[in-house]
Design goal:
Oligomer: single chain
Shape: globular
Strand content: 5-15%
Number of helices: 21
Order of helices and strands: HHHEEHEHHHHHHHHEHEHHHHHEEEHHH
Distance between the termini: 51 Å
Helix content: 40-55%
Structural class: alpha+beta
Radius of gyration: 21 Å
Largest sheet: 4 strands, mixed
Length: 459
């Protein structure tokens, strides 16, 4: 069995900023900006308000910024809060077989990085190192949904630990221990999708990454080969015989996972399993305008993995709506758009939405593949007999059809304006897109520490 844990640890501890190609750094800054934007929007969501309240009650040494709050807490607790808020709307990026690669790693890097007064170059290096580790592990295994696990938080905890170990400049042996500790902190169940607990998963992963690295720095130990050991991390989560150790360590950083297979920036604030269908519906409507009242039925075809994720046929809440193919189809056709405000209990209960959901049929075919790289053909049957069909082979925002720089800025601004002033918003854009020139990442976090209605003085 290849020495997976040791090889990954050596890669992380020896990676330098100069090793990372300019294109990877550019994309890294864009996904950081995107994640900060969705975390700002998430800070005023129900998830954000509760998590901030609990973290504040827990206290903690004021080391790191909690996004959307006027107070600080420990690096680990800030990572917990910011990770949960970054995933609250399910609007953060996706891909690399991880699920959501940025949100478990970035809050850990920013929390610990702020505590350490790390430079922008150090933050970028650590962030991309963490993405590489979680991406390689995810690529080595098969999907985890059929095992009952949420891959984002499983692989993300180890990725976050790798990133934090790099920030702390741990040597290979201690980095190995950090990965081993994180392996036992990984958690997250798929069946909590559609509830507030799903966003907690990456928050917990970020917290675990910080804790694992800090413990390893002090000499805390773990099994040195726990990722690849019999009954170890990959066997336990992916399953025996369901992962390839060589894939976990072959061609590390060549190319970096952030470049290939790459990261998808979300156009819609819902589970990525809906996105091909939404893009297909909009394309059909653009080619042949029609109203939802004209629709007799909509038939969507997919492989067997997608229903494990989009598990609500008729959702009861806005959170469940994010994981409902039927709801997203109905919302797109009835409302004409799928945006942040689509996913509310009131919209779910809209009689028009309820009626349209009953016209959606889902056919599962025996295909295999990643849910983000498998077509979902969409057929719309109109009452006048016309039949419109789209192969469902397109996601706006993926590496083959990326968002433009302006679209990225527009998305960030639309999310950030819920919390930030115009000047703070523009300052954040400048700092993040010029991150390599920032001497202390605290400068990036400072504009994000804002006072919201209902926030009092720091306790």
């Amino acid at each position: 069995m290849p020495a997976v844990t040791e090889t990954l640890a050596r890669f992380v501890s020896t990676l330098s900023y100069e090793d990372i190609p300019p294109e990877a750094l550019r994309i890294g800054k864009e996904v950081i900006l995107d994640c900060l934007g969705v975390a700002l929007a998430g800070s005023v969501d129900g998830v954000g308000r509760i998590v901030k309240s609990v973290v504040r009650q827990m206290g903690g040494k004021p080391e790191a910024t909690v996004i959307g709050a006027p107070w600080k807490t420990s690096a680990a607790q800030a990572a917990l809060a910011n990770g949960a808020m970054g995933h609250a709307l399910d609007y953060d990026d996706m891909g690399m077989s991880v699920g959501h690669p940025t949100v478990p790693v970035l809050p850990a890097v920013l929390g610990l990085g702020e505590h350490l007064h790390a430079s922008g170059k150090e933050v970028l290096t650590a962030f991309i190192a963490g993405l590489e580790v979680e991406g390689k592990l995810a690529a080595a295994g098969q999907e985890l949904y059929s095992q009952g696990f949420h891959s984002t938080s499983i692989y993300g905890t180890v990725g976050a630990a790798a990133a934090c170990a790099r920030l702390l400049h741990l040597p290979p042996a201690q980095t190995q221990m950090a990965l081993g500790i994180a392996a036992s902190l990984s958690a997250g169940l798929k069946d909590n999708f559609g509830t507030m607990t799903k966003p907690l998963h990456p928050g917990h992963a970020a917290w675990g990454g910080v804790m694992a690295a800090l413990l390893a720095r002090e000499g805390f130990t773990a099994r040195a080969d726990v990722l690849e050991a019999p009954y170890g991390f990959m066997d336990a989560f992916a399953g025996k015989g369901r992962w390839d150790a060589e894939k976990a360590i072959t061609n590390l950083g060549s190319p970096f996972h952030i470049l290939h297979p790459g990261i998808t920036l979300k156009k819609y604030p819902c589970c990525g399993g809906n996105h091909r269908v939404l893009d297909a519906l909009y394309a059909l409507r653009q080619q042949t305008p029609f109203t939802w009242e004209q629709v007799d039925r909509v038939v969507v075809e997919s492989g067997p993995v997608l229903p494990l994720v989009l598990q609500y046929t008729i959702p009861q809440t806005g959170y469940q709506g994010k994981f409902s193919l039927h709801f997203n189809v109905a919302a797109a056709l009835v409302l004409g758009h799928v945006v942040r405000d689509t996913f509310t209990d009131a919209v779910v209960r809209d009689p028009r939405i309820q009626e349209m959901m009953r016209r959606v049929e889902w056919k599962v075919v025996a295909e295999t593949g990643d849910i983000l790289h498998q077509g979902t053909p969409v057929t719309v049957y109109l009452k006048d007999g016309r039949v419109l069909r789209h192969p469902g082979d397109f996601i706006k925002g993926d590496p083959q059809h990326p968002l433009s720089r302006q679209e990225i800025l527009d998305k960030f601004s639309d999310n950030a304006r819920l919390v930030l002033s115009r000047s703070a918003l523009l300052k954040t854009i400048d700092l993040v897109l010029g991150l390599e020139g920032v001497e202390d990442v605290t400068r990036v976090m400072r504009p994000l520490a804002v006072r919201l209605p209902g926030d009092g003085k720091q306790g």
